[in-house]
Design brief:
Layout lengths: L2 E4 L5 H13 L5 E6 L7 H9 L3 E4 L5 H8 L4 E5 L7 H14 L4 E7 L14 H15 L3 E7 L3 H8 L2 H4 L3 E4 L11 H12 L7 E5 L7 H12 L4 E4 L2 H10 L20 H12 L9 H6 L6 H5 L25
Parallel strand pairs: 1-2, 1-4, 2-3, 4-5, 5-6, 6-8, 7-9
Helix pairs in contact: 1-8, 3-4, 4-5
Protein name: Quinone oxidoreductase 2
InterPro entries: Ergot_Alk_Oxidoreductase, NAD(P)-bd_dom, NAD(P)-bd_dom_sf
């Protein structure tokens, strides 16, 4: 009976991975889902998993003992990247060490596009892929078999992190993508790919690029969102330095862990914010892949489908009396 340990099942990506793993697991598979905080798992999810014989346990990337307890006897384990910028390689090292001690054969990791870029120095990498590049090196040097997925930026982040800033910015999207297209991917699709890889649908020691189905500009996404409510927003493309100054003048922190975001519309540190646009502007997310459909059997979600989940959070026009055309459609 093969044992598969899916860590981070209480997170957004991890919960999507857990749901799909529970769906596709074979009767002989033993599944263990771990959570940093068991209280974060919805009661209905916990009960449904346990009804299927899935073990649910607490474990943290910062606590080696908790990892050793759940990794014993596992054939494969997964590791989801966290928000702990700078500390993530240390977390990964603990996971790798625990996996080695427990005789785990294979490790699956959610990396990020750009982690494989060839550069002379690590500092030459854009901010967001740096930790991931270090972690990929640790995994490849560990002797463990691996599956690595390099996810594109999430469609969900646009609704959760950027859209709330539009009213704050004077009904404008201050943006540094320079009108370059990007194949944003649904976070749920990334979660399903992780589950598929964990349960053995990938090839050994292979890196997969997980993308959305189409490359679009941020301006196109903004226009579509505005069409849903009648809200009027201006797309303003800015050089990186100018965008940095604008947000610095309004107190955007340099560090996500210790910064004060209480008066700001989004919790993104400066380098994270700027690098999101930089990754798009450099063309790192232009190409699409068939990885989602090939590994999960489902077509990848278009941004319209994903963003409709967040429609209640879209800014609205001051007067929506003439917005009878608004409809819950996700078609082209």
């Amino acid at each position: 009976m093969p044992k598969y340990v899916l860590t981070g099942a209480d997170g957004k990506l991890g919960s999507a991975a857990a749901a799909f793993a529970a769906e596709i697991a074979k009767p002989e598979d033993k599944l263990v889902f771990t959570a940093y905080k068991l209280s974060n798992i919805p009661k209905e999810s916990l009960e449904a998993w346990q009804a299927k014989g899935i073990e649910v346990a607490g474990a943290s990337y910062d606590d080696t003992a908790s990892l050793l307890a759940v990794f014993q006897g596992a054939d494969a384990v997964s590791m989801v990247s966290t928000w702990a910028f700078g500390d993530r390689p240390k977390q990964a090292a603990r996971v790798i060490e625990a996996a080695q001690q427990c005789g785990v054969r294979r490790l699956c990791y959610t990396s990020f596009v750009g982690a494989g870029l060839e550069v002379e120095k690590e500092e030459d990498l854009p901010f967001l892929p740096r930790d991931h590049a270090r972690i990929e090196k640790l995994i490849k040097a560990s002797g463990l078999e691996y599956n690595i997925q390099r996810n594109y930026l999430y469609q969900d982040n646009i609704a959760e992190l950027f859209v709330p800033s539009w009213p704050f910015c004077g009904d404008s999207w201050l943006n540094n993508t320079h009108h370059v297209r990007a194949a944003y991917v649904a976070r749920d699709d990334c979660g399903r790919v992780l589950a598929a890889l964990l349960l053995g649908r990938g090839q050994p020691n292979k890196v997969y690029h997980v993308t959305g189905p189409e490359a679009v500009t941020d301006g196109q996404i903004m226009d579509w969102i505005c069409d849903q409510t009648g809200y009027q927003c201006e797309f303003i493309d800015m050089p990186d330095a100018e965008l940095r100054r604008w947000w610095a003048d309004r107190g955007l922190p340099e560090d996500a862990a210790t910064g004060d975001f209480s008066g700001l519309p989004m919790k993104l540190c400066m380098e994270d914010l700027l690098c999101c646009g930089e990754m798009v502007a450099r063309g790192y997310m232009l190409e699409t892949s068939d990885v989602v459909e090939r590994l999960t059997g489902r077509r990848p979600l278009r941004f319209r489908e994903t963003l409709m989940k967040y429609k209640a959070n879209f800014p609205v026009a001051a007067d929506t009396s003439d917005c009878d055309h608004v409809a819950n459609h996700c078609r082209e």
